[in-house]
Amino acid sequence: MGDVLAGFHAVWEFESDSVLIRYERGIRTPKLFQALGERRIPLSAVEGVTLAPGRRGTVVLRLLPRAGADPLVEAAAGQLKDGSDPYRLVLPAERETLAEYYADELKGLLTESGPVERHLVAAPEAPLSFKAYDGKASFDGTAVQFRWSWTGASSAKWKAGDQSLAVTDLSGVEWRSPEVFEGHLRLVRRDAAPDAPVQADQDPAAVVFGLGYGPVHESLPFAAAVLAAVRTRGPVPAVPAPPRRDPADIAERIRHLGELHQAGLVTDEEFAGKKAELLAEL
Questions:
Q1: Which residues, given as ranges, of the chain have pLDDT below 70?
Q2: FRET pair for 244, CA 20 to 30 Å: which of 37, 218, 254, 276?
Q3: Which residues does 255 contact at the CB level (< 8 Å), separation at least 6?
Q4: 12 and 5 in contact (C-beta within 8 Å)?
Q5: What is the tally of structural domains in the chain?
């Protein structure tokens, strides 16, 4: 087709086998769109197109992705609000006839439907990181690192220590939006026991969100990137040893560990063992 349709916050460029979506940057553009930048959606990843009236004199053109085609949509699990849906293009109502034309053209090009076995839309690229309420999460493409915050992490996470979980050890991710109560990102281990999941604030394989921590535009692309890596899991290259920690940071962690020990939340053996681990990082 080779045509371009501009709406609020995004521009869609129609090609013979895909739709290239370029998201605008601006104070009114949803932060998730700004973080995504642009996305190419293969038509093989789409099973339908809708056009419906929007709010305040607008119409909404929307692509309906196939189940399992997009790691971002899979990770979001239906939790995105309409305004942050990357598959919606909002246009002024006076452009409805033009939008209807493109909707009909797209429908004529769609030939696939139903779930897919592999992702067809590219995931956000690593490295990625974000700050959660109880720690910092980072992903280099092969492993996820959780580094606990002494001001927010539970004693259970402090006892377990900072985490490094390889993609090859995971079977998926669980993202709960920070816009709802008990938002979190949990890594699902392949060898996890079938018991009821531990509360996220007590689970060393999860970070919890809070006011201003783990916002959608940071934590959701992170979850999608990890999920895509899990789905395409392959040999993991060696990860270089982490740099030496700042002595001041180690001292602060030991001080906090001592407070937990004095409060009776950490045993003598646990305190001695964790202190030795921290000192070994100097």
A1: 1-2, 194-197, 234-246, 248-249, 252, 265-266, 281-282
A2: 218
A3: none
A4: yes
A5: 3
Residue 40, beta-bridge partner list: 20
Contact 127, 239 (CB under 8 A): no
Longest CA–CA separation in the chain, Å? 73
Helix (H) or strand (E) holding 64: strand 58-65
Neighbour-count burial for 226-256, b at 16+ CB within 10 Å, e otherwise? bbbbbbebeeeeeeeeeeeeeeeebeebeeb
Shared-domain flag, residues 231 and 261: no
Around Cβ 167, how many Cβ atoms within 10 Å?
A: 22
Rounded to whole angstroms, how far apart are CA atoms 88 and 103? 12
Count how many residues are written for the chain: 282
Tell me how far apart the alpha carbons of residues 30 and 148 are, in angstroms, rounded to a whole number.
Answer: 29
pTM of the entire predicted model: 0.82
Do 45 and 120 form a contact (C-beta atoms < 8 A)?
yes
Range of the domain at 224: 128-241
Same domain, 210 and 269: no
